[in-house]
Amino acid sequence: MAVFTPLSDAQVAEFLSHFDVGSLATLEGVAGGTENSPFFVTTDRRELVLTLFEQGEHEELPFFVELLDYRDEHRLPVPGPVHDREGVALHSLSGKPSLLFPRLPGRHPLSPSLEQCRVLGDTLGRMHVVSQHFPGHRPNPRDLNWLMAMHHRVLVYLSPEDQALMKDEVEIYQGVFGDAPPLPQGALHGDLFRDNTLFEGDRLGGIIDFYNGCTGDLLFDLAIVINDWASDADGRLDAERHDVILRAYQNRRPLTGPEREVWPTMLRMTALRYWLSRLLVVYVYPPAHDLTPHDPTQFHTILTARLTHGALPLPEASNA
């Protein structure tokens, strides 16, 4: 169960009275979150999601509201937060920051079809084109600077071989990205795994969970997607899913020459980013609640597969 702060019907009914969304009919805790307390809220007029923020930097929440509002205004498939009658989205409920969202249709794709991959690539390309003009700024909290600062904290828990692997990789990333020309920048999702999308069949219902949102290299976002959506169980890239996502993406935003040059290294760096963050949760910063951390070995497997087999050739954009 992922509801850490329970709410009563009376609390939520009073909360909803500030919004033009109707009267509470049902309230249901959602057993799906890992950091926050989500609830499905049904009124006599619509279905909503209420989120209480349990962890993280609460002063950064206005950035996420602005980012979601911006993408919603540009007709991207994201849940723009519901604003109250005074135009305010961010509230406090039971002593926790809270946001109300429309409930989007669909389910997480466990094994994405090629059409789902195409739709995701197209949507991410659209999102990145729009996001290059977003005026907000929040530095990427999991970029190369974070890797350099944090990887030392897990080395004692690794085998000598994995210690050498991690240290060598971080040194390589410093050389590649330190000398690379500036890459295209914009607002990122920052965590666009399959379980942060909702599909009804092959139709995208929406992209959710923007709380790793930040600004930085657009290529970083794309590499996260490829490592999750196009990797097989052994970590190797599936050529069909890989090419479908990247062709659809580049129909919206073709990759630049510098992006193409550093692409294989970016795939490795984003794999190490998740290997390291999951190691930190297991060994250094255990979750505040009784939750099972994600297995770090998944991204160790992906990283070693990228090193062993390399990146696949980047396909060209094609409107066919």
Automatic annotation (TrEMBL):
NCBIfam families: PRK05231.1, thrB_alt. Its EC number is 2.7.1.39. It comes from Halomonas chromatireducens. This is Homoserine kinase. It is an enzyme of class 2 (transferase). Keywords: Amino-acid biosynthesis, ATP-binding, Kinase, Nucleotide-binding, Threonine biosynthesis, Transferase. The gene is thrB. GO terms for biological process: threonine biosynthetic process. It catalyses: L-homoserine + ATP = O-phospho-L-homoserine + ADP + H(+). One of its GO terms (molecular function) is homoserine kinase activity.
